[in-house]
Amino acid sequence: DAKTTQPPSMDCAEGRAANLPCNHSTISGNEYVYWYRQIHSQGPQYIIHGLKNNETNEMASLIITEDRKSSTLILPHATLRDTAVYYCIVRVEYGTASKLTFGTGTRLQVTL
Amino acid sequence: SAVISQKPSRDICQRGTSLTIQCQVDSQVTMMFWYRQQPGQSLTLIATANQGSEATYESGFVIDKFPISRPNLTFSTLTVSNMSPEDSSIYLCSVSNRLTDTQYFGPGTRLTVL
Question: Residue A32's closest CA among A56, A68, A6, A72?
Fold first, then answer.
């Protein structure tokens, strides 16, 4: 799987959009971008994933650049409950290589 | 997504003893996985629990230390054997319907070994 690079930490004011970047410059054409978050040592929570088109669900939006070398997770209106470690993972969706490999993630702190 | 529970949620154990952690899912799933998260670290995959056959372990993890059972499509156990303080971690199970599907995680078991 391609390696990802994320900033170790970010701050965001409550009510503002949180934009979390992820660099995956060596991503292959068949690798998906997944985002999970982990709130204070709970089990990781799936957020969203995509291949090359932008994706949106009830939790977040995922913007993937045209060359697929980077992506941004957007939480449109961050709340204190969004404070967590956010993991960006690239993953093929076939065979044993599809296992998840977690990096160190971005610690997002949402403040009043 | 499936509802996943783990027991115990936390435990404090003495070195040299063993602890069995249970993972229960409210619906049948094909794939079950076990992860470890050491203090301040990210998650590491221990093994894939296979129903009806031996688990598939990742590099650095062995069956004698982390025996796994998977008797059916909704339940799995992970045993941490002959524990030492270095085994103090959060242990998490995850599930998916296929190997390539999105994985969903249980709440984790926080283990402290004294």
Answer: A68
What is the token pair recorded at B44? 């590491």
The answer to whether A103 faces chain B, any CB pair under 8 Å, is yes
Q: What pLDDT, in 10s, does the model give residues A55-95?
A: 999 999 999 999 999 999 999 999 999 999 999 998 876 66
How far apart are the C-alpha atoms of A46 and A32, rounded to whole Å? 14
CA distance B60 to B46: 8
Distance, in angstroms, between A12 CA and closest chain B CA? 22
Are the CB atoms for B95 and B31 separated by under 8 Å? yes
Which has the closest alpha carbon to B32: B83, B69, B63? B69
Question: What would the pLDDT profile of A12-45 be if each residue is shown by its tens digit?
Answer: 999 999 999 999 999 988 889 999 999 987 999 9
